[in-house]
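Hi! If you just cloned this repository, the fastest way to understand the data is to look at a raw example. We've pasted two of them here, unedited. The first protein comes first, obviously.
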Amino acid sequence: MRNLTMMTDLYQLTMMNAYLKMGMADREAVFDVFYRSAPGLEFAVAAGLEQAVEYINNLHFTEEEIEYLKSLALFDEAFFDRLRKFRFTGDIFAVREGEIVFPTEPILTVRAPLFEAQLVETALLNIINHQTLIATKALKITQETTGAVSEFGLRRAQGPDAGIYGSRASMIGGCTSTSNVLAGQLFDVRISGTHAHSWVMSFPTELEAFRHYAEIYPENCLLLVDTYNTLKSGVPNAIKVFDELSAKGYRPVGIRLDSGDLAYLSKIARKMLDDAGYPDAKIFASGDIDENILSSLKSQGAKIDVWGIGTKLITASPNPALGGVYKLAAINLNGEWEPRMKFSDTPEKLTNPGFKTTYRIYGGDGMAAADLIALRSERFDETKPLTIFHPLETWKKTTFTDYRMRDLMVQVFDRGKQVYELPPLKEIIAFAARSREEFWEEYKRRVNPHRYKVDLSDGLYALKQSLLRANQEH
C-alpha cells in the first residue's frame, strides 16, 4: 500500500503550521465533500471510498519526507515533531460506493482536529473526484445500450493511476469488463480483448491471420474485420474461418468493427453472419464512441451486441473534472459547535452549514422521490406527513404521506478507527445497479433530465437563513 501522505497542496501544510502556532491545531472541525451542478453532471455515481479509506489508514510522515519539508525553510521543529506523531484520529461519514448522489449533497464528511482535517482535503478530493466522475460517465454510456460495455481506455488515460482506478470506477458505473489486465488482477473483475490491426497486417493475407488466430484460440475466436475492407474481405474471411472452426466442433465468438459507418456495417454484417449460419456470433464495436453516438446508433437500428469504449469514457469527455469541493461546515469553539458557511452573490455557491447527512425519500411505489439534506441532530417521524420545499424557490412544496426515508451516509471511521467493512467490488457493482433502479428513467436520461428534488430540512434551512441574516447585519 502506497503512502500518499505527501500528496497534498503546500497550503494545507502552511495552514496546519499556522493552526499549530495559533493554538488551534486540536480544535475540531467538520468538512464536507460535495460537488456543484454542471451540464452533464445533474447526478453522479459515488466512487472511490475504498481508496480514500486506504489513504486514511496509511497516513504518516516518514523521516525522509520530513527532511524534504525541512529543506523548504518554512517550518520549525515544533511542526516536525507534530508530523512525526501524525495519525488520523477523527470521524468520517460517507455515502456507499455506487450510490446515486446529486449536487450539494455530502459525499463524504470529515469531523476531526483542524490539523488533521486540513491535510486530507487534497487527497480525498483527488480520489473521490476522479472515480466519481468516471463512474458517472460509465453510467451515462451503459444506460444508452442494452448490450454489454467493456472499458477500453487504458492507453488514453491520463497516467497509470487514472487508467487503473478509472477501470475500477467504470465497473461501478455499469461496464461489465475491462481491457486493463492489472485492474482485472487488482479488483477481481472480468477482462476482455481480441487482437489489433497489427496482427492482421503481420501476415501476407487477412485470411491467413484469421486462421492462425483461430488455431491458437479456437474457443475464444473473435476477429477484427475492418483492417482492409469490412464487407468485401473482413466478414467473408471471418466466415470462412468460422466454417473451419465449426467443422472441428468449435463455435466462434464473433467479429469486431472498429471503424466506418457502424450502423450500416453492423446491419449488413449481421445479415451475412445469419445467412452463413452464425446467428449467435456476436458483433463487437469500438472506435471513439460515447453516449451520444450510442443513442444515435440505437435509433438507426445498429446490430451491435457488445461495445468497447475507451477514450471518451476514461477521460469523461466532455467533462474534464467533477468539480468536487471540500468546505468547512462547523467548528468547535470552547466546547460549543458553531456552524460555518461560505457566502456568495451566486445562490448556488452558498454552502450548507452544520454537521449533516442526506435522507432519500421513497414514495409508496418504492421509487426515489426526493432527497433531504438535514442536520444530523434532526429526527423524523415517518408515521406523520412530511412536507419539503425547494431551498431557493420556497413556494414549491411537496407533502409525503405514504413514504419511507433512508440515511445515505454510513460511518466509516470512529475516532481514527475504521468501523465500516469495505465490500468487495462485485458487491459494490451489485449495489450500484440496485441504486440506479431506484430512479425513474426521466431523472437519468441523457438530454434534459427531469429535475430531481434535493431540498433542505426545516432545521438546516432555518440555520442557513439565520447565518445569512447575521452576515447581512454584520
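Ok, and the second one:
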Amino acid sequence: MSREIGGYMELEHFRGAEMYGDLYKFNLGRTAFVWILQHVKHNRVFIPEYICSSVPGSAAAAGFKVVSYGLDEDLEPVWGPEGAPTEEDILYLVSYYGQLTEETVKRRHAEYPKLIVDNAQAFYDAPLDLPGVWTIYTPRKYFGLSDGAYVALPSDADETLAADYGSLKRDRSGGRISHLTGRLEGNARDHYSEMLAASDEFATAEPAKMSLLTENFLRGIDYDYVQQKRCENYRILRELLPDKGPNPFVKRMPSAPFAYPYYHKDGVGLRKYLAEQSIFVPTNWSYLIKKLPEGSLEYKWSADILPLPVDQRYSREEMEIIADAIKGYSL
C-alpha cells in the first residue's frame, strides 16, 4: 500500500528525547524477560519469593527451572535447599522501591556473574555496563502508558542479538488506552474494567517491539519534572508519616521514588479504609498473602507495606490528605 498523504491529522508526534532511547524497546516487561531468557544458555534462574507471579511463571513457561529464594530484613538473599546460584545459573535481582544500589549490584555480580536486574520500581537508576548483566525497565509503572519496556544489554552481548531484535514485529497499543484517556477526562472507577481488560491481554502477549504510540508518548515526557515531583512528594510523606515499623524499603532515598512504602501493622484494614476515602493503594503482591505463612517477611511486606502514591499528578495538598486519612485510621 502506498503511503497516505493528506486527510485528517493523527495524534501529534512529540519531538523530545526518550530517557532510554538507545536501549532495546519491548511491548512489556514480562515479554522483555521472556526474550532475555530466549538468549541465555542456562537452565536455572533464581527468583525472589517476593515478586509478581508473572516472573516465575514466565521463566517456567520458557523451560527454565525456577529456584525461589527468600530475603532477610536487609533484603539480602536467603538461599533455600538448593543453595546459592552457580556460574551456570541466572540470578534475578529486584530493586524494591529503588533500594538496590550500584554497589550492591556490583557485589552480587562479583559473586554471581549472570544477573537480570529488575528496575521496574527504579526507572531513573541507570543500567550498569557489565558483562552478563541485563537490566529491565517498565516505564508504565512511572508514567501514564498502557505498555512498554526497555532492556539494557550486557557489555558482552552476542552480536546476533541485534538481528533477532530487529526481526520482532511491532506491537500496537491503540486498542488499550481507553482507560488512560478515560481517567484523564473522568475518574478511575468508571474505567477500571477497561484497565483490567487491557491487562488481561498481557498474559498471552509474545515478545514484540514497543508500539509507535508508546514510543511517541515517551518522547513527550518531562523527565526532570517527574523526578522532581516524585522526590518532593516522597519527602513530604516521609515528614508527615515517619516510618516506625520493620521496613527495609525506606533506608535509602530513591533517585525518583516509585511510591512511599509505608508500614502499618494492619495494612489490609488500612487499605480498605483508604479506598472508602477514594485513596487507592495497591497490594504488592496479593497472591503471596494466600500462598505464604503469616510469619514470613514476604507475607508481612505484601500485607502491611502500603505503596502510597507520590507521582507527578500530585502535590503537598494530596500528600496531606493521605497523611490525615492514615492518622485518622491509626487513632
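That's it. A detail worth noticing about the second one: The first helix runs from residue 29 to 37.
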